[in-house]
Specification:
The chain is α+β, with helices and mostly antiparallel strands. The chain contains six helices and nine strands. A six-stranded antiparallel beta sheet has the order 4-6-5-7-9-8, with helices on one face. A three-stranded antiparallel beta sheet has the order 1-2-3, with no helix packed on it. A hairpin with a 4-residue loop joins strand 2 and strand 3.
Length: 275
Amino acid sequence: MTSMTGDQTPPAGWYPDPNPGADAPAGQQRYWDGSAWTEHTTTAPTGPAYQAAVQQAPRDGLGLAAFVLGVIGLILIFFIPVGFLGTGILGIIGLILGFLGRGRAKRGEATNGRTALWGIILSALAVAISVIAAARLVADPSEEASQDAAPPGADVVNVFDLEVGDCLTEIQATEETFISVETVPCSEPHSEEIYAVVTLPEGDFPGDEAIVTQAEDVCVAEFEGFVGLSHAESVLEFNYAWPLEEGWDAGERGVVCAVSDPDGETTGTLARANR
């Protein structure tokens, strides 16, 4: 083996082979032990000894979407009629996306774990509010419907609290049971006008057929005094309300008579209409 030449002797290590054989691979190196070449050879690496890792962007979309859906769902319940339907749907979707986004954050695939958590909280709140709103609507659907149907200035009163001269928008009844009566000033369009309220005599409940007959007789008798013509001569019609047995037992004795125009709504009173 030969020795290194030069003013300074290099330290031990791998160096290009000073005397490669004819069949030596390209880039062959030989080990220098600090004083002489050894028999140990190797091939120098021709490329990098590592592969660069690919940097992937955070996948924050699911957590952000859950947060946005939760916020929108809560807004819908306050600003849009029956918005609880949309609130419930958005809340459920937001919950699903929120849990998926939270999972990504735990695996290190996303950086907005807190945003996803808030999305879960807001979406769960939206679902809870929508369930409560739906339950209230199912429990009493007539409450919202009656408020929406009542025209401006209308008052909802008990039918047996009516007085002569009260004007009604429309009697809402199920079979023979009056649920509510809406009154408006007679100067506004209305469907009926109260022309008589008569108290029946005390005693035991006379029976359904008998009390209907009494109520009809009373209203026919009172008709002419209000309209100016008898019912047989008039083109107008009348309706009446009477107490059922449970109302009679509770002390209710009133018969309420209402006159109406079969051609449609009336503006003003029908008192002394003479037609």
